[in-house]
TrEMBL record:
GO MF annotation: an example: acetylcholinesterase activity
Stretch forming the signal peptide: 1-16
Protein name per its UniProtKB record: Carboxylic ester hydrolase
Residue stretches of biased makeup (Basic and acidic residues): 411-421
Keywords, sorted A to Z: Glycoprotein, Hydrolase, Serine esterase, Signal
Catalytic activity, EC: 3.1.1.-
Length: 437
């Protein structure tokens, strides 16, 4: 078990107590280079202090991009093979801190949401014959690219519903599982950002790490109030990914009864969503929220608000007419939207949204959120749910990492030392569950 406070510090200072070993490992992969500022090997009261290291620790270069940046074991060692309920997967056997770690990229958990599946609920991935190659990263979901904010390594496509797994051993299904949900205002981001590499966490703490893609923007959150566009498709994608974890994580050495979901920013809102939604009950046991809850500010729409915004986008694409929009004739308008290219839809969204970076958001009421999320929290106490097998931890936003890369790599941002979360109160002042998560 990992204590909530320890879990938080793990993300912020994952490399703090292993600087010397990592520096030596760094030299074996990248070779020596000049000194630079990095996270030192000392901690005090959960704080990670900045200091100048003799050798710079550029984990992003050594652990990210693709498997060529990992220290791959000799060719005479077999590539790892696991068998899921959908079929066999071939992964990568890499070395991190001198220890073996198995890496599986681009595992499909849903059918590609293309053509008639655009805007619909996700459909579980079909079984395949033979062994699927899980050694390469797949596409990220369509979005407006901001390289200075979101360092996305792959191309973009609506065929993007994939997840990734890191594990040190598949012998026994006893490891705790941590599932990361990326942030980005429900409009940006990907599991294939350079700092979302689970190798270090899996190796240092002997857990199974899972990162997931989910639909964002109009493709993930347009709500027309009909099954053809029910809204919250991105959250339903996450829900389906969690179901995949429940059904398949044993093959990777994970225990489906010890699953923790965690995320930052919109990823934290997503975690809060699964705590609230009746559709996600039983899919995880613990949750860790970093900088975002439905008690803070509103990344939330009503069905009507989403449909009106979608109608404006449809009008730009000549999919509406007199007395015909998503509120009055959703079937006709959606059928038209499905004939448009990804690029054309994005250009229309940009025209409608203007300077706003965030466009389409989670919405209610619907199957995922039968009532407004804040009302759901009041109606069913989180503490009461905790007694039935779900534990939650929330921390002050000012104490959490500014850049999500620190979560996985312990990197510094803007030369400022970061503190770990104070496990004493949430952002709105309510008590934090200090039980083990």
């Amino acid at each position: 078990m990992i204590h909530a406070q320890v879990l938080a510090m793990l993300f912020v200072c994952a490399t703090a107590t292993h600087t010397k070993e990592l520096s030596e490992h760094h030299q074996t992969i990248l070779g020596p280079s000049s000194g630079n500022s990095c996270c030192g090997d000392s901690t005090e009261k959960g704080s990670c202090h900045q200091q100048t290291c003799p050798t710079p620790l550029d984990i992003e270069a050594s652990l990210s991009e693709d498997h060529h940046h990992l220290n791959i074991w000799p060719n005479d060692m077999k590539e790892p093979i696991v068998e899921t309920k959908q079929g066999k997967l071939k992964g990568i056997l890499a070395s991190v801190l001198g220890k073996p770690v198995q890496v599986y990229f681009g595992i499909p958990y849903a059918e590609p949401p293309l053509h008639q599946l655009r805007f619909r609920k996700p459909v579980p991935a079909k079984p395949w014959n033979g062994t699927l190659d899980a050694t390469r990263k797949k596409h990220s979901c369509p979005q407006q690219l901001y390289p200075e904010i979101f360092d996305i390594e792959t191309g973009l496509s609506e065929d993007c519903l994939y997840l990734n797994v890191w594990t040190t051993s598949t012998t026994k299904p006893t490891k705790s599982v941590i599932v990361w949900i990326h942030g980005g205002g429900f409009s940006f981001g990907s599991s294939y950002q350079s700092w979302y590499n689970g190798s270090l966490l899996a190796t240092m703490h002997d857990v199974v790490v899972v990162t997931i893609n989910y639909r964002i923007g109009i493709f993930g959150f347009l709500n027309a109030g009909v099954p053809e566009a029910p809204g919250n498709m991105g959250l339903l994608d996450q829900n389906l990914a969690l179901k995949w974890v429940r059904e398949n994580i044993r093959a990777f050495g994970g225990n489906p009864s010890r699953v923790t979901i965690f995320g930052e920013s919109a990823g934290s809102f997503s975690v809060h969503s699964h705590i609230i939604s009746p559709l996600s009950r039983g899919l995880f046991q613990r949750a860790f929220l970093m900088s975002g809850t439905y008690h803070s500010f509103g990344l939330l729409d009503t069905v009507f608000e989403s449909a009106v915004r979608g109608s404006k986008v449809a009008a730009k694409l000549n999919c509406t007419g007199t007395l015909r929009d998503l509120t009055s004739h959703p079937d006709i308008v959606l059928e038209c939207l499905r004939t448009k290219s990804t690029k054309a839809i994005f250009e229309a969204v940009k025209d409608v949204s203007g300077s706003k970076m965030v466009s389409f958001l989670p919405s209610y009421p619907n199957e995922f959120f039968p009532i407004r999320p804040s009302f759901a929290l009041e109606a069913r106490s989180v503490r009461r749910r905790g007694r039935h097998g779900q534990h939650h931890a929330v921390g002050r936003q000012r104490n959490f990492v500014i850049a999500a890369r620190q979560t996985f790599l312990g990197r510094r941002s803007e030369g400022r030392a970061r503190r770990g979360p104070e496990a004493s109160s949430s952002e709105n002042g309510s008590p934090v569950d200090k039980r083990r998560v």
